[in-house]
Fold:
Amino acid sequence: MTAVLPRSARDTHAGMKVTQARVITSEWTKFRSLRSTKITLLVSLVLTIGVGALVSAVTAAHWDHLSLGDKASFNPVVTSLDGVLISQLAVGVLGVLLVSGEYATGMIRASLTSVPKRLPVLWAKLAVFAGVVGSLSIASTFVAFFLGQSLLSGKHLQTTIGAPDAFRRVVAAGLYLLLIGIIGMALGGLLRNTAAGISALVALFFVIPPVLDLLPASWSNHIGPYLPSNAGMSFWGRPDNPHLAPWTGFAVLCGWTAFAIILATMRLHRSDA
Amino acid sequence: MIEVHGLTKRYGPKVAVRDLTFTVRPGIVTGFLGPNGAGKSTTMRMIAGLDAPTTGSVSLNGQRYRDSVAPMAELGILLEARAVHTGRSAFHHLLALAQTNGIARRRVDEVIDLVGLREVARKRVGGFSLGMGQRLGVACALLGDPHTVILDEPVNGLDPEGILWVRNLLKGLAAEGRTVFVSSHLMSEMALTADHLIVVGRGQLIADTSVVEFVAQASGTVVLVRTPQASELWELLTGPGVRATIVSTGQLEVRGLSAEQIGDIAWEHHIRIHELATQQASLEQAFMEMTRDAVEYHAYPPSEPPLGQQPAAVGGSR
Structure:
């Protein structure tokens, strides 16, 4: 049974079809047309750069008063990237919001009726997030690195991007932020609620790691390094002892991210919206 | 054309929709009528693929909605619950949806003009009134120029001018050969808009009939008689095909006889009549009568136990 439509309508229908590229364009429109998204993203960039600069400046200013132990563990690359420890929360929250915001407002119903196969919507969100937040996060860690080095240079503590591990750590810190954001998106999709998603994120990255330290060392030493936060830290930052090798840590964090995305995919595919 | 077959939806122990089967044909406006909580919205969500049926199936023009290549050309839907991010402008909301299906940008401007939202199109939807929100919902539903249009309670929150606008829009869409399926809990609204009716109560099909037939069935007349000799008259009138009841002291309600016949009988037996009035049952009453047992949430006056003839207060008018 085909419905009769006026000529004008047939013009509208010409070329109509859902494609992955079109859904990505749509998600980009959604991303750039929300003030909350842009503000959260801006906050995360400012924190990465600003806090890194602050820590670098303070370290340089107090260098003469630092203990020998602090001086021994000093790493100019990691010091300039310390803002990531704070900005990871903003990026994670952005990830949660991008997905849970659709459920909170009901927008998801419009999104899924226009793309009833559903999964292309999630892939498009991930693509836009990886493209925009990923590239800006990596850019911000480079800015933080160079700004930090110039602040440390007052005490001749600086290093260069060509120094061993420097380039790897700077890129890794940006990738770390991206992966945290993607885990946030998965949590938003799993829990479908902004408050619950942010709570789960905070628990995963800020509550579970210190709680685990309260357990006997024989336990925490075996579990701790595999937590997403510690695994991530091992490839860009100043990890707790014991820790994983940098690329192992990266692989473990990627594994966590993939696991979260798979759960979110299953929930999106199977549950009523 | 929408074909619903054996549709059942269970939420835990609660059955929202029970074994619904009906067909919505193109070219006419089909009303989906039922009290609040009858399962109308759930059924519409299942047609749009938002909720998966527990059992049964739905097809749109012979295929599953999920399988359509250009979904927005197939179906446009306005859901009762809002489906808009409040932080985004109406324009960007429509643009983002249009882009998924490759709908041209000028069509976005077209539907904005069509629903009369041009002046506020760049404002955040969060500040919209209920009526403006409904207009935006209608714009979304029409964006893809769809073969099938489903509107869940479209006149909610609209002013009289807006209600008239929706009514004419629905008729216009049907006249263009589209399938138009519109829900309401108000019979009076449906009587003015729809050609065909699907009536549900507690998730079950109560009637699948044309509006003309429904009206004919509903207009069984009642004659109200006021007389000081009510019991005498009652004895005279009662007979095969006639139902007379004394509703209060000196008042009779008679079905099956016309006012003229009652007047003549009373005259022959010297019974004094103080009032003789024919009452046309309104469509709203007929609808309430039909769905009385199927109303999910009853409201009773505090003094009255839920035993009497009191129908539920659903969209009642005074």
